[in-house]
Design a protein that fits this description.
The complex is a heterodimer. By secondary structure, chain A is an alpha/beta fold. Helices cover 37% and strands 25% of the residues of chain A.
């Protein structure tokens, strides 16, 4: 749900990123308001994951500025570890810490980064496990969980840091189809609670129903941006139409593509 | 008529067993058991070795090895992190160190520490410190390479997850990467420990007091005293008391690590 006011929590301007000679991002400008849900869609190789990873500086931009929650990440003297405390990240491959139990996955950064004591970090961890519907898995090890459960634990781990923004990098792409729904359900609930979210996804129905804004990226630029009813419902750019017809109707893609 | 592959394999294996039995029979027949038994299996000579071979020699071997391994682990960890550092000079220093100590015979390290250092600096450490440092220097080069491989085997996503939770690079390394690296390298690390146990036999080069004897030295002194090879054979058997259980431990850890990997795959696949 949009917050109504125009206080930007993420401001990206003139962002360029190249891997060697390969230009992946060619000048991106994006503003995200507090409470806004932005879905980034586009073909693979379009730069959408790279863009998302620039928002917590897992990738370092070549030029341009990235402002998140008052921190200018692109300032060489920024305290990046402090800035990242307010930015939650959920990965395609879950990346739970394999040597720690579910509960310890949720408490380790609270204790070591935020300095919370054992009791408080455990209380917050259990709250968030409850929220993603996995309260009974606190003592399990990550490899005892299904992919969908692991991803929900990963979301709870990020939430335990009480971030101001959540980034999702294709959170359901590594899941069996029947497990996707649980994860999307948790994400929808988060959106309803007013969390600011940037989501790179191929789930068009999720983007259509949950996003306030959809960005369509191709070839390292934002081709089209707007509410889902426009970008997915009535795309104006040819590239957007081609992509959507391939995604929404893969069996007949050759006819339109 | 051509043999089936199964028959051929059976015949081949039969021939192998036949050769093995013949070789054993030849050894049994031609060896002079009487003289051999006298020299190596003289129970009287062996019995003179007790209890010192256990209470002094075996215990000292374990102490020297444990001290050396602990130091080797500490230096090895620093070297492994240096070798993976983004700072050039750290990498170069670590590379030179590892290549040097992995390449020179342990014998040379013991001589350098036992005689070179006292000459150069007028410093005289006690035997236990010198032994620990020498074994630590030798062991650290191997341990560093093993640790480096283990650290690199931890998926990059683990660091990314830790960093995006606000951990610094070093905090992520020590909280997330190294504990997982150790799980991966426990089996090869046990092998390093076995190798170090045997390298501890070189400590005699330092010149030892009777109370400082480790197994090899104790056995050789016993040889001189009894005029029999039996004490050194007994000392050799004592090494097995240490190394065989370690070997079992290593294989057990390997199996457990393999099982965890398999189970992990089953669930996520």
């Amino acid at each position: 749900m949009s917050a109504g006011t125009d206080d930007a929590i993420v401001e990206i301007s003139g962002l360029h990123k190249a891997f060697g000679k390969l230009e992946v991002l060619k000048g991106i400008d994006v503003r995200v308001r507090r409470g806004e849900v932005v879905c980034i869609i586009g073909p693979s190789g379009s730069g959408k994951s790279t863009l998302l990873r620039c928002v917590n500086l897992l990738e370092e931009p070549n030029s341009g500025t990235v402002l998140v929650n008052g921190y200018e990440l692109t300032d060489p003297d920024v305290d990046i570890d402090r800035a990242r405390r307010s930015i939650g990240m959920v990965f395609q491959g879950f990346n739970l810490f394999g040597h720690l139990s579910v509960l310890d996955n949720l408490t380790v950064a609270q204790r070591k980064v935020l300095g919370r004591d054992a009791a408080e970090s455990e209380r917050i961890a259990r709250e968030n496990l409850e929220k993603v519907g996995l309260a009974e898995k606190a003592k399990s090890m990550p490899d005892q969980l299904s992919g969908g459960q692991q991803q929900r634990v990963a979301i709870a781990r990020a939430l335990s840091m009480q971030p101001a923004v959540m980034l999702f990098d294709e959170p359901t792409s590594a899941l069996d189809p029947e497990l996707v729904g649980d994860v999307l359900g948790v994400m929808r609930q988060l959106a309803d609670e007013g969390m600011t979210m940037l989501v790179v996804t191929h789930e068009m129905q999720f983007a259509r129903e949950v996003a306030d804004t959809v960005l369509f990226m191709d070839g390292g630029v934002v081709v089209e941006a707007g509410p889902p009813s426009k970008v997915i419902g009535e795309p104006s750019e040819e590239r957007t139409k081609t992509f959507l017809s391939r995604v929404l109707n893969p069996v007949h893609a050759t006819e339109t593509g | 008529m051509p043999m089936s592959p199964r028959k051929r394999a059976q015949a081949f294996r039969g021939a192998q067993y036949g050769i093995l039995v013949l070789a054993l029979a030849a050894v049994a027949f031609f060896a002079n058991w009487e003289k051999l038994g006298d020299a190596f299996f003289n129970l009287d000579a062996m019995s003179t070795q007790f209890p010192g071979i256990i209470t002094t020699a075996l215990v000292n071997t374990i102490i020297y090895t444990a001290l050396g391994f602990a130091l080797g682990l500490a230096i090895g960890l620093v070297l492994a992190l240096m070798k993976l550092s983004s700072v050039g000079p750290y990498r170069w220093i670590a590379t030179v160190y590892i290549e040097f100590f992995r390449g020179v015979p342990a014998l040379l390290v013991f001589i350098a520490l036992g005689f070179g250092v006292p000459l150069a600096f007028q410093l005289q450490f006690d035997t236990y410190s010198t032994a620990a440092i020498a074994l630590g220097l030798v062991g650290s080069a191997y341990i560093a390479e093993t640790l480096r491989a283990g650290i690199q085997a931890v998926p990059k996503g683990q660091v990314e997850a830790a960093r995006s939770l606000g951990m610094s690079q070093s905090r992520a390394t020590f909280t997330v990467v190294i504990p997982q690296a150790f799980r991966i390298i426990l089996p090869p690390l046990t092998n390093e420990l076995i190798l170090l146990t045997k390298d501890s036999s070189l400590i005699y080069l330092l010149g030892l007091l009777g109370s400082e004897y480790e197994l090899a030295k104790f056995g050789r002194e016993g040889m001189n005293a009894t005029n029999s090879m039996s004490p050194i054979l007994l000392a050799g058997l004592c090494y097995l008391i240490i190394t065989v259980p370690l070997g079992y431990l290593s294989r057990y850890l390997e199996r457990r690590a393999g099982r965890q990997r398999d189970e992990g795959l089953e669930v996520t696949a």
